[in-house]
């Protein structure tokens, strides 16, 4: 009989051990499933974050490339516009080169001298002319009542007249060079050759 008690005791311990084993196996399985779910959630979050980062990186790269292409296009347009403007104004300067050889130009030079003389109102002054126009200096001086000197001015490339009155501190510029340059500014603003 003692053998029977021992056997019963061992069987009870074995049943208890098997029950504990099954319980532990269930807990391990449950723990394993929880850890697996956590790992899947972490992987999903990391994957989403990585996708967003890659998407943002790609978007930034495409935006930078597009901006560079746009900037290069604008630079080319600006250069073309500048070249067109230069060609137009070189042509205008050539036409003015023909104009200064006419009698009409000589009359315009006289009108400019009269206008400057009115502004200087009898004060002494200096007239600046293109070197080739110095031959008209005597006639142009006749419009002034004050003492007048005439000098060649190398900055006057095309023609016209510029006067300086020291007592009034005034410079009167009636040169074709200055008028042409003023037209260049107007042209650039109004010619619809803008760079977008």
What this model shows, in words?
This protein is of the alpha+beta class and 196 residues long. It has two domains: 1-99; 103-190, hypothetical protein PF0899 fold (2-Layer Sandwich). Helices cover 69% and strands 11% of the residues. It is built from four helices and four strands, in the order ααβαβββα. The protein has helices at 2-99, 103-120, 137-141, 176-190, and strands at residues 125-129, 148-152, 160-165, 170-175. A four-stranded mixed beta sheet has the order 2-1-3-4. A hairpin with a 4-residue loop joins strand 3 and strand 4. The longest helix is centred in the N-terminal third of the chain and has 98 residues, at 2-99.
Helix and strand arrangement:
Elements: H1 2-99, H2 103-120, E1 125-129, H3 137-141, E2 148-152, E3 160-165, E4 170-175, H4 176-190
Parallel strand pairs: 1-2
Antiparallel strand pairs: 1-3, 3-4
Spatial strand order of the main sheet: 2-1-3-4
Number of domains: 2
Query: What is the makeup of the main sheet?
Result: 4 strands, mixed
- Helix count, DSSP H or I runs of 4 or more residues: 4
Our estimate of the beta-strand percent is: 5-15%
- In sequence order, what are the helices and strands, one letter per element? HHEHEEEH
What characteristics describe this protein?
hypothetical protein PF0899 fold; 196 residues; 4-stranded mixed sheet
């Amino acid at each position: 009989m003692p053998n029977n008690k021992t056997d019963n005791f061992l069987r009870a311990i074995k049943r208890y051990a098997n029950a504990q084993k099954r319980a532990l196996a269930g807990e391990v399985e449950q723990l394993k499933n929880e850890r697996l779910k956590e790992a899947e959630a972490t992987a999903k979050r990391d994957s989403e974050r990585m996708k967003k980062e890659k998407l943002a990186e790609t978007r930034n790269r495409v935006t930078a490339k597009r901006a560079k292409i746009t900037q290069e296009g604008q630079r080319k347009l600006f250069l073309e516009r500048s070249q067109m403007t230069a060609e137009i104004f070189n042509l205008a300067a050539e036409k003015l080169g023909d104009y200064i050889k006419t009698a009409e130009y000589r009359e315009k030079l006289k009108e400019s001298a009269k206008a400057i003389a009115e502004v200087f109102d009898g004060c002494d002054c200096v007239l600046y002319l293109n070197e080739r126009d110095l031959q008209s200096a005597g006639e142009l001086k006749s419009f002034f009542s004050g003492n007048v000197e005439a000098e060649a001015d190398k900055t006057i490339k095309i023609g016209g007249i510029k006067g300086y009155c020291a007592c009034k501190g005034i410079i009167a510029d009636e040169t074709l060079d200055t008028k042409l340059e003023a037209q260049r500014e107007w042209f650039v603003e109004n010619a619809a050759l803008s760079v977008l």
